[in-house]
Amino acid sequence: MTVKPDWLRVKAPQWERVGNVKEILRDLALNTVCEEASCPNIGECFNAGTATFLIMGPACTRACPYCDIDFEKKPKPLDPTEPARLAEAVRRMKLNHVVITSVNRDDLPDGGALQFVKCIEAIRTISPQTTIEVLIPDLCGNWQALELILQAQPEVLNHNTETIPRLYRRVRPQGNYERSLELLQRSRQIAPWVYTKSGIMVGLGESDEEVRQVMRDLRVVDCNILTIGQYLQPSQKHLQVNDFITPEQFAAWRAFGEELGFLQVVSSPLTRSSYHAEQVRQLMERNPRVRE
Length: 292
Known about the structure:
By secondary structure, the chain is an alpha/beta fold. Helices cover about 40% and strands about 15% of the residues. It has one domain: Alpha-Beta Barrel (TIM Barrel), CATH 3.20.20.70.
C-alpha cells in the first residue's frame, strides 16, 4: 500500500470523549458510518461529540469496491425500534445537527425511504431544535420513495455522485451517474426549500478537468453544497489509490466551486460527506428558505 503523505495524518483524539460517544452508541445498539466505513475522522468527530448514524445496516446489498461496509445479498429485516433509539441518541448527545445515512437496501421496494421518514419524525418529536441531514442512496430511481423522504422535510438532502462518469463501471458498478444527477434535480423540484448536497472522492485516476465537469453538472441540477475528499484504500482487497491529491489542488477546486455558485464547498484531503456537516446551520442562517 502506498505511503500516505504528511497531510493525511490525523491527530490523536481525547479518548475520554470518544468513549462517551461509543458508550451511547453501544447502549442504544446503533451503527455509524464512522465505524462501519473506517472513516479517518472518527477520532475527531467522536471527540467533538458527533457521529453519522448508519440506519438499516450494517450490511449493504451492494458491494462497491471502494467501500468498507459489509455486503449481504439478503440483509436482516428492518428494526422497528431503530428510529426511537436513534432519536434518543440525538437527545443524549445534544446534537444541534444530525446526519443520517444508510446502506443500500435494494431488497426493499422503497429502498428504505419509510425508515428514513420514521427516523426524521422520531427526532423531530424528541429533539425539535435539531436540524436533520439525510444522506440517501439512489433508491434505484424510485422517485415516489424520494418524494416520501422529502415530505418529511429534512433540512438537507445529500446524495453522493462519488466519482466521475468514466470511472463508474469500476468504482460504482451498481450505480448510475445520470440517475444520481436526476435524484438531486428532482429533489430541488419537489422540495425547493431543502438544501441539496453531494460529494465526490478523488485519487482514483480522474483528471482535474473531469472533476470540474462533475462540479459543473452538479450546478446544472442546482446542487447547493459540495464535498470533495481523498479516497483512501480500506484494505488490500479494495480499489487501490491511484494518487494522493495535494491540499493546493483541493483549494483550487473549492475556489472553482465557489465561482460556480455552490453555497458551500468543503474540499480537503480528509473531507468526507458529513465532515463538519454542522456548518450547514450557518449556511441556513445566511441563505434562509421558507418551507411550504
